[in-house]
Amino acid sequence: MRSTRGFVKPLLAFICLGIAAMWVYAFGFASKESVNRIGDTKWQQFAERRCAVAEAERIELADLRKVNEVGPDALRERAVIVDKATDTLERAIDDISARPVADEKGRAIVPLWLADYRTYLADRRSYADDLRAGINEPFAETKVEGIPISEKISTFAADNLMKSCGAPIDLSV
Question: What is the pTM of this model?
C-alpha cells in the first residue's frame, strides 16, 4: 500500500508539469495565425464589399407579414423569396470567384471555401424546391465531418475579415 502511494505523487506532479508545459507552449510559442487566414488583403476587401451588397439585397427581400396574413400559397411564395435571396449569394460568389487571389495560401484554400459555398447554395435551392412541393421542414444543410457547412463558410469569412461573406442565417428556424 505504501509503495503505491509513493508512486502516485510523482505521477501527479509529472502530469501537472506536462499540463503547465502545454499551456506555456500554447500561450507563448504556438503560432497565433489562423489556418484560414490568407495574405491577399485586396481580395478580402473586394469580397467583403461584394458580399455586403448581396446582404443589402437580401434585406430588401425580407417578408415581414404577420402569420395570419399568409394565405394558402405561403410555401410557394417563401420558395420564391428563398430563390431570390440565394440568387444574391450566387451572384456574389460568382463575382468573387472571378477575382484571382494573389497569395499562394489563398490560391490553395479560397477554392475550397468557394466549393463549400456552392454546396451551401445547392442546399438552399433544394430547400426552396421542397417548399414548392409543399414540404415545410426546417432548412437542412450539408455537414462536413459533422460540422454544418455554414459554420465552415462563416469561420473562413470571419478569419479573413469578410463578415458579410459568412453564411446568412435567413433560413434558420
Answer: 0.79
